[in-house]
Amino acid sequence: MIVSSLVAAALLLPPAPVAPPPVEPVPPPAAVPVDPAVLHRPGTQVRLPPGVAAPPRVSARSWLVADAATGAVLAARNAHRRLPPASTLKALFALTALPGLPPDRQHTVSEHELRGIGDGSSRVGVREEVTYRVADLWRGVFLSSGNDAVRVLAGLNGGWAETARRMQATARALGAHDTRVVSPDGYDAPGQVSSAYDLAVFGRAGLRNPDFARYAGTAYAKFPAGRWSYDIRNTNRLLTGADGVRRYPGILGIKNGYTTNAGHTLIAAARKGPRTLVVSVMNPRRGGAHAVYEEARDLLDWGFAAGAAARPVGSLLPPRAAAPVRAAAPPAPAPPAAPRTARSVPPTAAVSVASVPDDGPRLLLPLTFVGSACLAAATLWLVRRRTER
Description:
Blueprint: H1 2-12, E1 44-46, E2 62-67, E3 72-77, H2 90-97, E4 106-108, E5 131-133, H3 134-144, H4 147-156, H5 160-173, H6 196-207, H7 210-216, E6 220-224, E7 229-233, H8 237-240, E8 251-259, E9 263-272, E10 275-282, H9 291-304, E11 314-315, H10 361-388
Antiparallel strand pairs: 1-3, 2-3, 2-10, 3-11, 4-5, 6-7, 8-9, 9-10
């Protein structure tokens, strides 16, 4: 009776609560995979459904059209061909130096800071013994492509050689591996190269930096000259509509360049409705000085029209970094052998202390009584048998 009562009482106890399994977050949908090798192929790369217009035939040695929001490359030609970038390299200079130079910081230029500027360089008119705000110097870089302003800002950024080293590191961090920086202002230097792919990477990254985007989209500004100032105009004609080049609707600017060795180069971005495109054009071989703008216009027009149906042929996003390999931890000491009466736990089973509630022992205590009662009854039965014998 006693045993039966104890067993019944044990069975009537409420079961111990079980902790609910953790809710795992649902991963976002994976991006459409693209093969990075496609953009390393020579010639034009594009994937279009039947009946959709192909990209325009332009004379540039290298060009690229990409969606600035997603980084998807819609079409490109010789995307990774390494060519001199001219002043479009200033986009990388700005990405590197802007974060560490507060725009309201003031600096008085000394004579030695203006040494070493290449012959024939474009200048905004920085003068020694004149105090400038950093923001003024950046406008000199973006609007007038001033190599003199780059010299002063590079000095504030740690020096000419250090700035080149940091620019190289920034390019690598962005996944731009075609660029070799020798002269931070983009002036022709042996071994200095970039590519349409890398320039588009710099343009897309610049749009995501509010200071960069503001300077790159400024058409006109005042530049100080001591007690007076003078007007400067952006040399990107798609932005200003100057010199017979029509202003592109929705243009966001960015950076143009020219040297004898590089020819004309351009990074341009524009927005229409919800879409923003970035294009890079390097060294058109026909059409004169304004061909770089007209070819960029044609590529933007195609990107906003037929390019919407294109399947990506690449991406401007850097490849996902591989997870670091952790060193193997030393083996933990073997736990003490469990007594034979204990139930062994399989090695793959996980034991969570948090899932054992405080009221668990209320079930174990009655079971202990049941076991003891059964053992006592069996012992009493054996004693009586021996006594009867």
